[in-house]
Amino acid sequence: MTVVKICGVRTVEAAVTAAGNGADIIGMIFAPSPRLIDINTAQKIARAVVPAHTRQDKADVLDRECKMSASEYFKASSDKLLSCGRPLLCGVFQNQDLDHILSVVRQVPLDLVQLHGTEPVQMARQIPVPVIKVFHVGADFTLDTAGLLETGYHAIILLDTKVPAAGAQQGGHGVQFDWTVARSLSDRNVPFLMAGGLTPDNVEEAIKVARPWGVDVSSGVETDRAKDPAKIQAFINNAKAA
Known about the structure:
about 30% helix; globular
Protein backbone atom coordinates (compact mmCIF):
# COMPACT_ATOMS: atom_id res chain seq x y z
CA MET A 1 0.00 0.00 0.00
CA THR A 2 1.31 3.44 -0.94
CA VAL A 3 2.83 5.57 1.81
CA VAL A 4 1.23 9.03 2.19
CA LYS A 5 2.96 12.17 3.43
CA ILE A 6 0.82 15.21 4.22
CA CYS A 7 3.19 18.18 4.24
CA GLY A 8 2.97 21.81 5.25
CA VAL A 9 0.82 21.04 8.29
CA ARG A 10 0.50 24.10 10.55
CA THR A 11 -2.27 23.23 13.02
CA VAL A 12 -3.02 20.50 15.51
CA GLU A 13 -6.39 19.99 13.85
CA ALA A 14 -4.87 19.32 10.42
CA ALA A 15 -2.27 16.97 11.89
CA VAL A 16 -4.87 14.98 13.82
CA THR A 17 -7.05 14.77 10.70
CA ALA A 18 -4.14 13.47 8.66
CA ALA A 19 -3.10 10.93 11.28
CA GLY A 20 -6.67 9.81 11.91
CA ASN A 21 -7.23 9.13 8.22
CA GLY A 22 -4.10 7.03 7.83
CA ALA A 23 -1.29 9.42 6.85
CA ASP A 24 2.09 7.75 7.34
CA ILE A 25 4.21 10.92 7.52
CA ILE A 26 3.23 14.40 8.69
CA GLY A 27 5.47 17.19 7.44
CA MET A 28 6.08 20.51 9.15
CA ILE A 29 8.02 23.26 7.37
CA PHE A 30 10.81 25.07 9.21
CA ALA A 31 12.14 26.85 6.11
CA PRO A 32 11.00 30.27 4.84
CA SER A 33 7.57 29.58 3.37
CA PRO A 34 3.93 30.66 3.67
CA ARG A 35 3.58 27.36 5.57
CA LEU A 36 6.37 28.08 8.07
CA ILE A 37 5.58 26.69 11.51
CA ASP A 38 6.89 27.89 14.88
CA ILE A 39 8.51 25.63 17.44
CA ASN A 40 5.70 25.91 19.97
CA THR A 41 3.03 24.81 17.48
CA ALA A 42 5.23 21.98 16.23
CA GLN A 43 5.62 20.73 19.78
CA LYS A 44 1.84 20.79 20.26
CA ILE A 45 1.37 18.80 17.05
CA ALA A 46 3.93 16.24 18.20
CA ARG A 47 2.15 15.79 21.53
CA ALA A 48 -1.24 15.45 19.84
CA VAL A 49 -0.19 12.99 17.15
CA VAL A 50 2.39 10.91 19.02
CA PRO A 51 1.87 11.33 22.78
CA ALA A 52 4.49 8.71 23.76
CA HIS A 53 7.30 9.36 21.34
CA THR A 54 10.40 7.30 20.57
CA ARG A 55 12.61 8.53 17.76
CA GLN A 56 13.71 6.51 14.77
CA ASP A 57 17.27 5.15 14.82
CA LYS A 58 19.10 5.11 11.51
CA ALA A 59 22.34 3.46 12.64
CA ASP A 60 21.75 -0.15 11.67
CA VAL A 61 20.83 0.57 8.05
CA LEU A 62 23.77 2.93 7.62
CA ASP A 63 26.17 0.38 9.09
CA ARG A 64 25.23 -2.09 6.36
CA GLU A 65 25.20 0.34 3.44
CA CYS A 66 28.60 -0.70 2.09
CA LYS A 67 27.28 -4.23 1.50
CA MET A 68 24.08 -3.12 -0.27
CA SER A 69 23.08 -2.05 -3.75
CA ALA A 70 21.03 1.14 -4.07
CA SER A 71 17.88 -0.92 -4.43
CA GLU A 72 18.66 -2.98 -1.32
CA TYR A 73 19.71 0.03 0.74
CA PHE A 74 16.69 2.22 0.03
CA LYS A 75 14.34 -0.75 0.45
CA ALA A 76 15.86 -1.53 3.86
CA SER A 77 15.74 2.08 5.02
CA SER A 78 12.14 2.62 3.86
CA ASP A 79 10.99 -0.63 5.50
CA LYS A 80 12.64 0.38 8.76
CA LEU A 81 10.91 3.76 8.80
CA LEU A 82 7.48 2.14 8.77
CA SER A 83 8.32 -0.50 11.36
CA CYS A 84 7.17 1.59 14.34
CA GLY A 85 3.55 1.41 13.21
CA ARG A 86 2.60 5.05 13.83
CA PRO A 87 2.66 8.35 11.92
CA LEU A 88 6.15 9.80 11.54
CA LEU A 89 6.92 13.47 12.12
CA CYS A 90 9.09 15.15 9.49
CA GLY A 91 10.72 18.57 9.63
CA VAL A 92 11.35 20.23 6.28
CA PHE A 93 14.38 22.49 5.77
CA GLN A 94 15.84 24.16 2.70
CA ASN A 95 19.45 25.33 2.42
CA GLN A 96 19.67 26.17 6.11
CA ASP A 97 22.59 25.93 8.49
CA LEU A 98 23.22 22.58 10.11
CA ASP A 99 23.17 24.24 13.55
CA HIS A 100 19.63 25.49 12.92
CA ILE A 101 18.46 22.04 11.83
CA LEU A 102 20.00 20.40 14.88
CA SER A 103 18.45 23.01 17.15
CA VAL A 104 14.97 22.23 15.80
CA VAL A 105 15.58 18.48 16.13
CA ARG A 106 16.51 19.01 19.79
CA GLN A 107 13.32 20.97 20.49
CA VAL A 108 10.79 19.00 18.41
CA PRO A 109 10.70 15.18 18.50
CA LEU A 110 11.13 14.68 14.75
CA ASP A 111 11.46 11.20 13.27
CA LEU A 112 12.75 12.53 9.96
CA VAL A 113 14.44 15.57 8.50
CA GLN A 114 13.75 16.55 4.90
CA LEU A 115 16.42 18.49 3.04
CA HIS A 116 14.52 20.28 0.29
CA GLY A 117 17.23 22.43 -1.24
CA THR A 118 20.61 21.94 -2.85
CA GLU A 119 22.26 20.54 0.28
CA PRO A 120 24.95 17.91 -0.40
CA VAL A 121 23.80 14.38 0.40
CA GLN A 122 26.74 14.07 2.80
CA MET A 123 24.96 16.49 5.16
CA ALA A 124 22.60 13.67 6.11
CA ARG A 125 25.44 11.98 8.04
CA GLN A 126 25.48 14.92 10.46
CA ILE A 127 21.79 14.70 11.30
CA PRO A 128 20.77 12.26 14.06
CA VAL A 129 17.50 11.10 12.44
CA PRO A 130 16.88 9.59 9.00
CA VAL A 131 16.84 12.07 6.12
CA ILE A 132 14.57 12.52 3.12
CA LYS A 133 16.59 14.21 0.36
CA VAL A 134 14.84 16.02 -2.47
CA PHE A 135 15.99 15.85 -6.07
CA HIS A 136 14.24 18.40 -8.27
CA VAL A 137 13.07 17.10 -11.61
CA GLY A 138 13.69 19.48 -14.47
CA ALA A 139 14.75 19.18 -18.09
CA ASP A 140 18.26 18.15 -17.08
CA PHE A 141 17.25 15.44 -14.57
CA THR A 142 18.56 11.89 -15.04
CA LEU A 143 19.07 8.89 -12.79
CA ASP A 144 22.76 9.82 -12.89
CA THR A 145 22.04 13.05 -11.03
CA ALA A 146 24.78 13.50 -8.43
CA GLY A 147 23.97 11.87 -5.10
CA LEU A 148 20.60 10.42 -6.12
CA LEU A 149 21.49 6.75 -5.68
CA GLU A 150 24.37 7.13 -3.22
CA THR A 151 23.92 4.86 -0.23
CA GLY A 152 24.65 5.55 3.42
CA TYR A 153 23.45 9.15 3.47
CA HIS A 154 19.74 9.90 2.94
CA ALA A 155 17.23 7.20 3.81
CA ILE A 156 14.55 8.23 1.31
CA ILE A 157 14.66 9.82 -2.14
CA LEU A 158 12.04 12.50 -2.86
CA LEU A 159 11.35 13.58 -6.44
CA ASP A 160 9.69 16.99 -6.78
CA THR A 161 9.18 19.43 -9.61
CA LYS A 162 11.88 21.99 -10.32
CA VAL A 163 10.13 25.36 -10.65
CA PRO A 164 12.67 27.92 -11.98
CA ALA A 165 10.24 30.82 -11.55
CA ALA A 166 9.91 30.01 -7.84
CA GLY A 167 13.46 31.19 -7.14
CA ALA A 168 14.90 30.12 -3.81
CA GLN A 169 11.70 28.60 -2.45
CA GLN A 170 11.06 25.21 -4.05
CA GLY A 171 8.12 22.95 -3.19
CA GLY A 172 4.46 23.56 -2.47
CA HIS A 173 3.69 25.20 -5.82
CA GLY A 174 1.35 22.54 -7.19
CA VAL A 175 3.35 21.97 -10.39
CA GLN A 176 3.64 18.49 -11.89
CA PHE A 177 6.56 16.85 -13.64
CA ASP A 178 6.53 13.98 -16.14
CA TRP A 179 5.58 10.94 -14.06
CA THR A 180 7.30 8.58 -16.50
CA VAL A 181 10.61 10.05 -15.28
CA ALA A 182 9.78 8.73 -11.82
CA ARG A 183 8.77 5.39 -13.32
CA SER A 184 12.34 4.94 -14.52
CA LEU A 185 13.43 4.91 -10.87
CA SER A 186 10.79 2.40 -9.79
CA ASP A 187 11.84 0.22 -12.75
CA ARG A 188 15.17 -0.11 -10.93
CA ASN A 189 13.32 -1.30 -7.81
CA VAL A 190 14.35 1.80 -5.85
CA PRO A 191 11.61 3.09 -3.49
CA PHE A 192 11.00 6.83 -3.50
CA LEU A 193 8.55 9.55 -2.54
CA MET A 194 6.96 11.64 -5.28
CA ALA A 195 5.61 15.18 -4.98
CA GLY A 196 4.60 17.94 -7.37
CA GLY A 197 1.06 18.91 -8.29
CA LEU A 198 -0.63 15.91 -6.70
CA THR A 199 -4.29 16.20 -5.74
CA PRO A 200 -7.09 13.86 -4.63
CA ASP A 201 -8.21 13.78 -8.28
CA ASN A 202 -4.91 12.75 -9.90
CA VAL A 203 -3.07 10.78 -7.23
CA GLU A 204 -4.40 7.39 -8.32
CA GLU A 205 -3.24 7.94 -11.90
CA ALA A 206 0.13 9.25 -10.68
CA ILE A 207 0.68 6.08 -8.66
CA LYS A 208 -0.33 3.84 -11.56
CA VAL A 209 2.14 5.57 -13.89
CA ALA A 210 5.12 6.15 -11.57
CA ARG A 211 4.75 3.32 -9.01
CA PRO A 212 6.31 5.29 -6.13
CA TRP A 213 6.84 3.97 -2.62
CA GLY A 214 4.99 7.03 -1.40
CA VAL A 215 3.29 10.28 -2.40
CA ASP A 216 3.76 13.71 -0.85
CA VAL A 217 1.19 16.52 -0.96
CA SER A 218 0.81 20.02 0.41
CA SER A 219 -1.08 22.55 -1.74
CA GLY A 220 -3.17 19.77 -3.28
CA VAL A 221 -5.08 19.31 -0.01
CA GLU A 222 -5.63 22.99 0.70
CA THR A 223 -8.47 25.44 0.19
CA ASP A 224 -7.54 29.13 0.39
CA ARG A 225 -4.05 28.10 1.60
CA ALA A 226 -5.40 26.20 4.60
CA LYS A 227 -5.46 22.44 4.98
CA ASP A 228 -8.90 21.11 4.02
CA PRO A 229 -10.00 18.06 6.07
CA ALA A 230 -12.18 16.69 3.26
CA LYS A 231 -9.33 16.94 0.75
CA ILE A 232 -6.89 15.32 3.18
CA GLN A 233 -9.26 12.39 3.67
CA ALA A 234 -9.94 12.04 -0.06
CA PHE A 235 -6.25 12.18 -0.95
CA ILE A 236 -5.29 9.52 1.57
CA ASN A 237 -8.19 7.26 0.61
CA ASN A 238 -7.45 7.54 -3.12
CA ALA A 239 -3.72 6.98 -2.66
CA LYS A 240 -4.24 3.93 -0.48
CA ALA A 241 -6.77 2.50 -2.95
CA ALA A 242 -4.51 2.88 -6.00
